[in-house]
Every structure is written in structure tokens, then in C-alpha cells.
Amino acid sequence: MPTYADFLRSKCPNPADPSITGLFQSEAALLTDPIAFKTLKRFQRTNAFFREFSDVMERMGAMAVLTGNEGEIRRQCNKMRAGNGSLFIFMVSLLVLGVFRVSSASTIKGLQMNFYKKSCPDAENIVKQTTRNRVETNPALPAKLIRMHFHDCFIRGCDASVLLDAANNNPAEKDTVPNQTLSGFDVIDDIKTEIENVCPGTVSCADILSLAARDALSFPSNKDMWKVPTGRRDGRISLASEVNGNIPSPFSNFATLQQLFASKGLGINDLVALSGAHTIGVARCATFSRRLYNFTGKGDADPTLDATYADLLRSKCPNLGNPATTVDMDPPTPLSFDKSYFTILLENKGLLQSDATLLTNGFSLATVRRFQGSNSFFGEFAASMKKLGAIGVLTGTDGEIRKQCRVVN
Ligand code: HEM
């Protein structure tokens, strides 16, 4: 049986005619990395490739673009002024760093912009208005809703399973340790009630949560920070047993975080960008006090945590004190969605072990530095949120449209 290599040898006899095209070692190398291999298989099995290719092309076209009065409008395209070569080198380095990453698109099958345009034209306005009213009196709410959306999407996809109460004595997702500190359920209930009053049985709780999270975070800037395509449907199952292993632990190391995010179709860039959500909100002492008092079981502190900052944290979270006491994750600007998280992270003041671990991988560290040193974080966070909001969505006739977000129909 002639092999494929035999076939290629017949096309490219030795010494090879360099004008004949063939296969690259760099392509074969994609089989040697587990995540790249999984992605190849997914592209081969499904139609996701076409969508994801177009998404990456969109991102590539927007990379490091010069706008406004940066750069110049060349008279001749093939003649550049001295110095422009650095842009080329910059682009090549971004390529080498793998910044062009494969992503699932916002236009994932079944989700579309303005899904409720005909069936409930006011739906998105109601979500926005109600969310804004609530954020106005509770500036901590954006952190609650963003985290709730993340925890929803990482278990069974963005299907509002996190909103369901326990049923038939079976504990639900919300009954588990990481989810017991979620709040904002009442806000989703209020929005749902208002929408049900005008369009009964039409708008899913999953869409309401996804829109409300975006609207809450966008409130201060008064501008939608990313687009939320809609058409999600609600799941009928919520199991406490599925939380462990799907919601990342604050004690995770880099490899664990990378694997968990990869299992949801998210790369290192997404991991770093989305961790940037820790630029707002609070964490309980219980989630990081091990770093202060007993890091390796010998009464020691985490050596990667800035020592002076550790002292301050110890004063806020005394040993054997109340584990439910909260501390700002980004003390300089705890309510402002800025890039300060990356600044303090690089000063070894990331609060959680899972934050600090982002400095332990070369690509991740380069991404942290890039986000700290430029304004690319905001666009990339938005892009990653779009991907997050499309994880495992139920669409078409799957699932249901719940009447109340806390119970299945
Ligand atoms: C990378 C893995 C992650 C881990 C291990 C992690 C873990 C945690 C922990 C332990 C807390 C403190 C909870 C508490 O004590 O109440 C927290 C807070 C928070 N997380 Fe994450 N998180 C991760 C990623 C994310 C992502 C992807 C988002 C959103 C896109 C997010 C958004 C938030 C927000 C906004 C808060 C503050 C919540 C509040 O103020 O109540 N986190 N996270």
C-alpha cells in the first residue's frame, strides 16, 4: 500500500522542486499540543471552523490598528518611512505569542442580535432600565451579576441553571460553597417579572442574566461594553454535584485554570482577560487566608505575595477571624472597571492564588503585561465575554422559557 509520504515523494522528488507546494511541519506540529489537537478534531467534526475562522479574521483585522492621528496615509503602499519596520516586528511578535487565537464566535448558531425584536420588542430596554435603576443605588451590583453570569456559563452552559432553587430535596448549583456567595438573584427576578407582564413566556432567564451582566457593567460608561446576541433558552437541570470541578477554585494553579478554561473553549488570553473582572468586587477572607497564615501547612505565608500587602491583609483578616469578612480585590479602585487589577497583579498584590498564578506562565505573564501597558484589555475583555456568553447555549427548541427564573415550568 503506498503511504501518503510515498504519494508526496512522487510529487516532490528529491532534490525537491521548490516551486511545488506541499505540507508544512508547522501544520503537523498542531497535532502535538493537546489543546490544538482537540481544536483540530472539533473543527473536523463540526462546522464550527467557518464561524471561528471568520471571528479570528475579524480580530486580526482589528489588531494593533493605528487610528485617529497615529501613523500616516501613505502615498504609495509599498513605501514606508523609516521606523515603520517596528510595527511589522510588533505584529510578528504578536503572532509568535499566539495572540491570534481561535475563538467561538458571537454569532454562534441559534443566537442572534435582537432575537426578541418581534416577539418582545421592549425586552432589552426593560433589562437595561431595571438594571440601571438597581446599579444606581447599589454600585456593588455589577460585580455580583458578572460573577453570576460566569458561574452560570461554566456549568451546563449559559442556561440559567445557576438561578434554579433546589427541587425534590436535591441541592442545586446555588447551594454549593462557591455559589453561596453569589447575590443579585432578586434583580434577575424583578426583571423577569417586568418582562413577563408584557411578553409572557417569551424571554429566557439565560438571556436576561447575560444582558443584565453586560448592562450593569456598562452603566458607568453609559455605553454597551459588548454586544449580547440573544436566543438562549433555559435549562431544566441544576445539580450541586456539577459545581465541583467546573467552577475554578481560588487555590488553582495555572495548569488547572488553563485546562478548565480550555474545556469551555477559552484560551489563555480569555483566562487573563476574564480574570480582569477581579478589578471590581470583593472576596471573603476564607478564599485567600491560607496565603497569609498556612500556605504549605507549616504556618508560613505565600512567598509570591508582597510581604507588606500580606501584613495589611492579615490586619483585615485576623487568623481564625470571621472567614466571611470581605476585602476589596482591587483596593485602589474597587468599584471602577479599569485595568488596575493588572497593575497590582504585577506588584504581587493579586488577592487570590488563582490571580497570582497568572504570572507563572510565559504567555499569560506577557498578556498581563500587555493589558497593563496598553488599553487593549477593554476590547479583549469584551470579546472574551462574548465567548463566555455563548458557552453551551440551548437554542431552538432545546430547554424551555421559564415562567419564573427560580423554578422549571
Ligand atoms: C480564573 C478563575 C477564577 C477564580 C478562581 C475566581 C474566584 C473568585 C473568588 C474566590 C471570588 C471571591 C468570592 C467571595 O469570596 O465572595 C471571586 C470574586 C469575583 N469574581 Fe472570580 N474567579 C475567577 C474568574 C472570574 C471570572 C472569569 C469572572 C467574570 C468574568 C469573575 C468575576 C468575579 C467578580 C466580579 C468577583 C467579585 C464578586 C463580588 O464582589 O461579590 N471571576 N472570584
Structure keywords:
Peroxidase, domain 2, binds protoporphyrin IX containing FE, Peroxidase, domain 1, single chain, 409 residues, mainly alpha
Explain the overall architecture.
This is Peroxidase. Removal of H(2)O(2), oxidation of toxic reductants, biosynthesis and degradation of lignin, suberization, auxin catabolism, response to environmental stresses such as wounding, pathogen attack and oxidative stress. With 409 residues, the chain is an all-alpha fold. Among the domains are: 123-242, Peroxidase, domain 1, CATH 1.10.520.10; 254-388, Peroxidase, domain 2, CATH 1.10.420.10. The protein is built from 18 helices and 2 strands. The chain has helices spanning 4-11, 25-28, 34-45, 48-61, 85-96, 123-137, 141-153, 177-180, 185-198, 205-218, 254-263, 268-275, 290-293, 307-316, 340-346, 353-356, 362-373, 376-388, and strands at 282-284, 326-328. α7 runs antiparallel to α10, α12 packs across α17 (362-373) and α12 packs across α18. It is globular, with a radius of gyration of 24 Å. The model is unreliable at 63-70 and 82-107 (pLDDT under 50).
Overview in brief:
With 409 residues, this protein is an all-alpha fold.
How big is the Rg?
Answer: 24 Å
CA-to-CA gap between the ends? 60 Å
Number of continuous helical runs: 18
Question: Beta-strand level of the residues, as a percent range?
Answer: under 5%
Major sheet: arrangement of strands: 1-2
**Which class of the domain at 254-388 in CATH terms?**
Mainly Alpha
Helix content: 40-55%
